[in-house]
Design goal:
3 domains, 12 helices, 765 residues, 44 strands, eight-stranded mixed beta sheet, Methylamine Dehydrogenase, Chain H, single chain, Rossmann fold, disordered N terminus, alpha+beta
Length: 765
């Protein structure tokens, strides 16, 4: 037995267990890079192994390439058991599933790093390698040193505090006694949908801070309870559902004496504070957006008076897409933004495009010494490359990722590139510096299976798709049942040139399915017009694209697919799409597994939902078109609904309302509630069990026999562990007129209480 096959607790490993234990093989991979401006070191995070969830702070010294572990939480006597609620919320918003050191901040020289562990903060000397606790009382949330490495600011008790790095002279700069008001934290909408994870910013000289004040008084309160523990009071959540009030957010400049100046802009017309930038290359800058998201302004701020002036503005008839990394200031006071021009998202300097038509900019990585590094896709949206351009002239040049998926961190003469491909599992992390190149060690586990991905272009809309077949597939063995495995919504891609992105799909393929993954309209990398196709309707185009793709594949590969046995599974927007498929196209789909689905868009948050559907009271038809509830009576296919009861993003009311509508219409279905589980399922036992339950349900629903679980010893649980309202695999019932049966109730071990967590990018359901 190889080390990868041996579980930490003994016994034979399985792919679902390994997939869950390794957090989808992200543990052990270097990440979160910060490069010193003198090119002498790169700081980063990495766990000590592929099954180790505890993040450690590392430094690689240049040019020699020696890696040093600067801070290991296990040696510091701190853990994640004492996390303040603000930090738990932050991790949920950024989908952080790991533990230990999951975030850190440095001074400008990258000689000092500050990070939180549990309720406490620690200071690390990145040169000497020493670590000491910050001598202040906890809980400490989001500690950040000033650029000069003299002081550290952090949030405690809803207010912003500052202390010397030695822990002396602590003072509360700003704060309110009102429990509905916080200073220095990102509100729910900013963190969940805009990619703004922070609420305060140091000035370049370290003598003032720009601080966001968030007042949630007007935000509707929702209550999340745990029925498995009726003695525990419900958690009260300020949740801005579509059409309801948002938090009132203002920006203030605060000096070290506590003197405060409010930044002035028309917050009635532009209520969203999208981002704040305070760099040495330009003025204090705020980005604000209208509620309908059709207008974005970039404001230069006078920190002495709070007065603002508009330095750039974008308007779109549907919405202005927010791009990470912009705006930015280049030498000479030039403003770097993006513009949508000739169906291309292009970099622009002072409004003048500097990247070519057809190269779709996704994110700005850095602007250093006047050279801009960014990620983008060309003609193939499944590949994401790292590019560099000189805004003063010349064509962009590729740094990494032309035939895969790449990202980077860049500063001075150092570039850290992270590349993934279809040819090998895991990421390669290369550090390029002035005198050479080195590769950082990956400690990630090797998957128990290999993804064999065929990239396809299907149908008249040239839909990008990935096809995965069983490893032992024999065409003479007859047609295969088909499983669609999409996300299918805006802002996210599943069809990318990375083997690791397709591992779970390959596992289902090796269980006897042809698995098809399709990115439809709304997905990034194909231009603004493609993204904005979803305006006013989140249902029709995404579902049509899945159906068109599978029919195009069937026509191109006659005999491969059994079109009488087609199923679909998904989570979040993918869960919504899966439920939508069996409700609206039972002629195509025979079964669905819908995890954490949005069923009624009026229950989802303002910024995401209103971007596509507008305000509910102004365009109720858009919400009806996109809702699952009105179509509940049409269900006549097996449907498994799964939802975490602690989900504060897509709350469990979504699944419960659909289940109620199905029950009232007499339509059998299955519900699996997960006590203590949030929108993520990173825990090993829960995440492993869910994959096995998906497989068991789909096999029985489609009548697709096979071994209990590929790549492992047989231990797949049967769905008899909980009540089935609709027995998968039985003939689809005719319309039921008798009294409906009860909704599924938890009985099995998969319903044990699980802690919360998350791990990656934005956003939406």
């Amino acid at each position: 037995m190889t080390p990868a096959e041996a579980t930490p607790g003994g016994g034979r490993d399985t792919f679902p267990r390994q997939y869950a234990r390794t957090r989808r093989f992200t543990l052990g991979q270097p990440r979160a890079f910060v490069i010193a401006p003198d090119d002498a070191r790169v700081a980063f995070l990495r766990t000590a192994g592929g099954s180790d969830p505890v993040g450690c702070l590392w430094v690689v010294d240049l040019p020699g390439g020696v890696e040093r572990c600067v801070a290991d939480p296990r040696q510091l006597g701190a853990d994640d058991e004492d996390l303040p609620p603000e930090e738990r919320a932050r991790r949920e918003r950024v989908r952080e599933s790991g533990g230990g050191i999951v975030a850190y901040a440095t001074d400008r020289a990258v000689r000092t790093a500050v990070f939180a562990l549990g309720a406490h903060a620690f200071v690390a000397d990145l040169d000497g390698g020493t670590v000491r606790p910050l001598a202040v009382a906890g809980p400490v949330v989001d500690p950040r040193p000033d650029p000069l490495g003299i002081r550290v600011a952090y949030v405690r008790d809803r207010g912003l505090r500052v202390t010397e790095l030695g822990g002396s002279g602590e003072q509360r700069l700003v704060g309110d006694d009102d429990p509905d008001v916080t200073w220095g934290l990102a509100e729910f909408i900013a963190a969940e949908e805009m990619g703004r994870e922070r609420g305060f910013w140091w000035s370049p000289e370290g003598t003032r801070l720009a601080v966001a004040r968030v007042d949630e008084t007007s935000v509707v309160r929702w209550h999340l309870s745990d029925p498995a523990d009726p003695a525990t009071a419900p958690v009260v959540v300020a949740y801005p559902a579509a059409g309801t009030p948002n938090a009132a957010v203002s920006l203030h400049v605060v000096d070290l004496g506590g003197h405060t100046v409010r930044v002035a802009w028309d917050s009635d017309a532009l209520p969203y504070l999208v981002d704040v930038l305070w760099s040495a290359d330009g003025p204090l800058t705020a980005v604000v957006q209208s509620r309908d998201q059709r207008t974005v302004q970039v404001l230069a701020v006078d920190p002495d008076t709070g007065a603002t002036r508009v330095v750039a503005e974008q308007r779109q008839p549907s919405w202005v897409e927010l791009v990470a990394g912009v705006p930015g200031w280049l030498p000479g006071g030039r403003l770097l933004t993006t513009i949508d021009d000739r169906d291309t998202r292009r970099l622009a300097v002072d409004g003048r495009p500097v990247t070519p038509v057809g190269l779709q900019v996704r994110r700005v990585v850095a602007s250093d010494n006047g050279i801009v590094t960014f990620t983008a896709s060309g003609a193939d949206p499944t590949a994401v490359g790292v590019w560099r351009v000189d805004p003063d002239g010349g064509e962009p040049s590729s740094l990494a990722g032309l035939d895969g998926v790449a990202d980077a961190a860049v500063a001075g003469g150092v570039a850290v590139t992270v590349t993934r491909s279809l040819d090998e599992h895991g990421a390669r992390v290369r550090v390029r510096h002035r005198v050479g190149e080195l590769e950082l060690a990956s400690l990630a586990e090797t998957p128990l299976l290999s993804a064999r991905v065929e990239m396809l272009t299907l149908g008249e809309r040239a839909l990008r798709a990935a096809l995965l077949l069983p490893a032992d597939h024999d065409p003479a063995g007859g047609p295969l049942p088909l499983l669609l495995d999409p996300y299918g919504g805006p802002h996210a891609q599943r069809v990318v040139r990375s083997a690791d992105a397709h591992l779970s799909s390959q596992w289902f393929a090796d269980a006897g399915f042809a698995v098809l993954v399709v990115d439809g309209r709304g997905s990034p990398g194909r231009g603004p017009a493609w993204e904005r196709t979803l305006a006013g309707d989140l249902a029709t185009a995404p579902l049509d694209d899945q159906v068109d793709a599978l029919h195009a594949l069937a026509a191109a590969r006659p005999g491969l697919l059994d079109l009488d046995r087609v199923a679909i599974r998904g989570w979040s927007f993918g869960g919504y799409l899966a439920a939508l498929a069996v409700l609206r196209r039972p002629d195509v789909f025979a079964a669905a597994v819908a995890g954490a689905p949005v069923t009624d868009w009026a229950l989802y948050d303002t910024h995401y939902t209103e971007r596509y559907l507008g305000l509910p009271d102004r365009d109720p038809a858009a919400y009806r078109r996109s809702s699952l509830l009105d179509g509940a009576a049409s269900l006549d296919r097996p449907l498994l609904l799964i939802h975490g009861l602690a989900d504060d993003n897509v709350v469990v009311a979504h699944t419960l309302r659909l289940s109620r509508a199905l029950t009232e219409a007499g339509r059998p279905h299955t519900v699996l509630p997960l006590s203590g589980v949030t929108h993520m399922t990173p825990q090993e036992s829960g995440a492993e069990t869910l994959l096995l339950l998906h497989l068991d349900f789909l096999r029985r629903a489609l009548g697709a026999p096979g071994p209990p679980e590929p790549h492992a010893a047989a231990h797949a649980p049967r769905t008899a562990g909980f009540t089935l309202v609709n027995e998968p695999g039985a003939p689809a019932p005719a319309r039921v007129s008798a009294a409906p049966r009860a909704v599924a109730t938890p009985e099995g071990s998969c319903h044990r209480r699980l802690p919360a967590g998350r791990g990656a990018a934005r956003r939406g359901p």
